[in-house]
Amino acid sequence: MSDIKNIIDKYVENILSLDNVVGVGQGYKEVGGRRTNEECVVVLVENKMDAQSLNESHIIPQSLENQKTDVIEVGKVELLASDDKMRITKLRPAQPGVSIGHYKITAGTFGAVVKDKKTGEPLILSNNHVLANITNGSDGRASKGDPILQPGSYDGGNEQEDVIAYLERFMPIYNDQPPACPLMSGFNQVLKGLGRLIGAPYEVRRSSINNKVDCAVAKPKDRELINSEILGIGEVAGVAEPELKMLVRKSGRTSGLTSAKIKAVNATIKVQLSAEESAVFTDQIITEPFSKPGDSGALVVNKDNEAVGLLFAGSDKSTICNKINNVLTALNITF
What InterPro entries does the database record attribute to this sequence (predicted)? Predict the structure, then answer.
């Protein structure tokens, strides 16, 4: 797996510059619709297209260096804001799996109860775009101390009666697409020759900012206002690393309790933040589709109730999650 990750790191900017490509990661090759045990570089596309429909320079090569490639259709990946009305009532104590949100947004999912590593105080975990309004920290979209509503405003929550917590901290989200290759003709040669990139007469510049997580925590007004048991799942039993083919599940505001298998890890993927904005996230988990709009912020666990990821984006063909260890480290929290 380490060899594949090194290859992805080397070619990621070039792969993302191809038409219809939205991401790249590690996975297993599929033949005739059946998944094999052969690990490969998986290229994530919005829609699968015939080679005849693409410019020759944008056709995905069958291999990169010594590793085969495969193409996975993931659809147009977007942040999962609110839509259908489920788990939207006011609950006290509130528990993970129900509607919650920053007072300026619609609604997302209360992901988990975590602890501040320094103080031991309980905190509410969800996404930046759920608890902090997709802020980069300097755009005025959110600030520490902002009210958090349960249920979210889309579900009827209001600042007069439904404030359950206040924004404590978040990891900024930066709208920063990786630059296109400065000499596309050089990359064309790579795609045709497979391996000539190393000798190309230029160096691909990596994006100056990489988003790894979409996460934030809020401090409840009172400890008695929250319950750590995830609705339909129970208590978190620890933390685990994601693995290919691992069966995971989540409890979300919109689609409730659902499960899926992981189909790619260590993925870099473009995500639509809004109609006008998009961002690139690295080191992500790609699963089969098991979420709907409003499920953003849900904790993803394995069969042993060990936390694996934090759901934040998806489409009708895939779901995208942050690795939970990246989230815990970024926010200085623990279970």
Answer: Peptidase_S1_PA (IPR009003), Peptidase_S1_PA_chymotrypsin (IPR043504)
